[in-house]
Q: What sequence folds into this?
C-alpha cells in the first residue's frame, strides 16, 4: 500500500440520542402568541374576556340582587316593565338569560383548547428536533460513506495496478499466438509440463477462415478487404494459417525434446472427442454452434485476381471463407466442416504418435488454456506461465465475439488454471470408464 494514502479518520462521536429538553407551557404559549397574535386575540383573548365579563354580571345578578333577577319583566306597551334596569333593556335581557353552567363550560373549553394547542405544538417541536438529529446523523453517516468510497477507490486503483502487472490482456490472433508461443518456449527452456485445453487440436483452427480475424491479423479493418482481390485475401489467410501452424509445430517439437532429454515433464492435450460417444459427437456439436443460421460460408479462388465477393447482408464476423483452388463445391459449409474435422482428427493422431497424452472430452469447453508449469518435486525456483483464451470462433447468437485472452505468470492464477485443466482431464477419463462399463 502507498504510505501516502489517506486513511479514513473516525469523527468525534456525537450523542444523537440526547434527551430532548421539555419546554415550559407558558414559554410555548408565549411563542405561539408572538407567531400568531391575531389568531390568538380573535380565537382566545376576545371570547375569554366576553365570557368572563358576562359571568361577572350574571354572578352579580344571582347573588347580589336575587329578587330583581327572579322577577319576570316583559315588554308592555312597547316599554320594559322593569323601571330600574341596570343597563339598557337589551343588555339586561341578555344577562338575565345567560346560563352560568354554559359560561363556565365555555371558559373551561377555551382553556382545554389552549392546552391542546400548546401540547400539540410541543410535540411538533420535539418531532422536529428528533428529525433534525436523525438528519444530522444521516449526514454524518453519508460523509463517512463518501470518505470510505474515496478510500476504497484509491485502494482499487492500487490493486488494479498490481493486477495489471501480473496479467497482460491480449486481443486478436497476433497477440494470442505470441502468448501461446511464449508458453511453449518456456516449457522447452525450463523442462516444464505443457498443458493444453482446447476445443480444437489445431491451434486456433477456426481463425484462418473467419474474415474479421484474417483482417485483424493483417492489421486491417474488415471493410478494408472490400476491394481486395481473392489472391490478396488468400495471402492474408495463408499468413494467419502459417503462424498458427508454426506455434503448433513448436508444441510438437517441445514434446519430442522433453522425451529426448529424459525429463519427467510431458505435454498433455485435452480436446474435443472426434468420435460419436454415446448420443453425442462433441466436435461436430462444437462446429454446429459456430456454423449456425447467422453465418455465411463462401468460397474464393486463391489464384484469382477477381475482387472478393461483397456481402453487405452478413457482418464480417459471421463470414467464413474457404479456398476452392479451382474445384467448385456446391456446399461450402459442408466442405469447411469436413476440412476442420479431418484436420482435428489428424492433429490428434500426430500428437499421440509423438507421445503427447491426448484426452478427449465430450462437452464443449468454455475457455482454452495453454499452461507451462513445473513438476511439484522439481527443485529450484521455476517460472509459471499461462495463456487463457476467453473467446474464439463465432457466438451462437450471431453477435461478434472477440478473440480475447490474457497472459499471466501469477502463481495463484496459474495454479487455479492447472486445477481446472486436471478437472477436465479427470472428468473426461471418468466419463470414458463409465461409458465402457455399460458396453
A:
Amino acid at each position: 500500500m502507498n504510505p501516502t494514502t489517506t486513511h479514513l479518520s473516525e469523527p468525534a462521536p456525537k450523542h444523537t440520542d440526547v434527551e430532548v429538553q421539555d419546554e415550559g407551557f407558558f414559554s410555548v404559549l408565549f411563542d405561539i402568541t408572538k407567531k400568531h397574535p391575531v389568531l390568538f386575540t380573535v380565537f382566545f383573548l376576545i371570547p375569554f374576556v366576553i365570557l368572563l365579563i358576562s359571568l361577572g354580571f350574571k354572578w352579580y345578578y344571582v347573588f347580589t340582587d336575587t329578587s330583581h333577577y327572579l322577577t319576570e319583566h316583559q315588554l308592555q306597551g312597547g316599554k320594559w316593565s322593569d323601571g330600574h334596569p341596570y343597563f339598557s333593556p337589551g343588555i339586561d335581557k341578555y344577562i338575565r338569560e345567560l346560563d352560568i353552567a354554559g359560561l363556565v363550560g365555555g371558559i373551561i373549553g377555551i382553556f382545554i383548547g389552549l392546552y391542546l394547542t400548546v401540547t400539540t405544538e410541543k410535540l411538533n417541536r420535539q418531532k422536529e428536533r428528533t428529525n433534525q438529529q436523525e438528519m444530522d446523523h444521516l449526514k454524518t453517516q453519508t460523509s463517512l460513506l463518501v470518505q470510505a468510497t474515496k478510500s476504497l477507490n484509491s485502494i482499487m486503483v492500487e490493486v488494479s495496478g498490481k493486477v495489471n502487472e501480473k496479467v497482460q490482456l491480449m486481443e486478436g490472433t497476433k497477440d494470442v499466438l505470441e502468448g501461446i508461443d511464449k508458453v511453449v518456449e518456456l516449457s522447452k527452456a525450463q523442462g516444464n509440463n505443457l498443458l493444453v485445453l482446447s476445443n480444437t487440436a489445431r491451434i486456433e483452427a477456426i481463425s484462418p477462415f473467419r474474415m474479421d480475424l484474417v483482417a485483424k491479423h493483417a492489421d486491417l479493418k474488415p471493410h478494408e478487404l472490400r476491394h481486395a482481390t481473392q489472391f490478396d485475401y488468400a495471402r492474408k489467410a495463408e499468413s494467419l494459417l502459417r503462424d498458427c501452424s508454426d506455434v503448433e509445430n513448436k508444441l510438437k517439437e517441445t514434446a519430442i525434446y522433453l522425451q529426448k532429454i529424459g525429463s519427467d515433464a510431458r505435454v498433455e492435450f485435452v480436446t474435443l472427442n472426434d468420435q460419436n460417444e454415446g448420443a453425442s459427437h462433441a466436435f461436430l456439436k462444437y462446429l454446429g454452434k459456430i456454423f449456425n443460421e447467422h453465418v455465411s460460408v463462401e468460397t474464393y479462388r486463391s489464384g484469382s485476381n477477381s475482387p472478393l465477393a461483397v456481402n453487405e447482408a452478413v457482418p464480417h464476423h459471421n463470414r467464413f471463407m474457404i479456398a476452392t483452388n479451382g474445384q467448385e463445391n456446391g456446399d461450402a459449409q459442408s466442405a469447411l466442416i469436413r476440412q476442420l474435422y479431418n484436420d482435428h482428427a489428424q492433429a490428434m493422431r500426430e500428437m499421440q504418435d509423438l507421445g503427447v497424452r491426448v484426452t478427449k472430452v465430450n462437452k464443449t469447453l468454455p475457455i482454452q488454456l495453454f499452461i507451462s508449469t513445473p513438476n511439484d518435486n522439481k527443485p529450484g525456483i521455476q517460472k509459471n506461465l499461462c495463456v487463457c483464451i476467453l473467446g474464439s470462433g463465432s457466438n451462437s447468437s450471431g453477435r461478434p465475439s472477440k478473440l480475447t485472452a490474457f497472459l499471466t505468470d501469477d502463481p495463484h492464477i496459474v495454479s487455479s488454471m492447472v486445477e481446472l485443466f486436471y478437472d477436465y482431464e479427470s472428468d473426461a477419463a471418468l466419463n470414458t470408464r463409465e461409458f465402457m462399463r455399460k458396453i
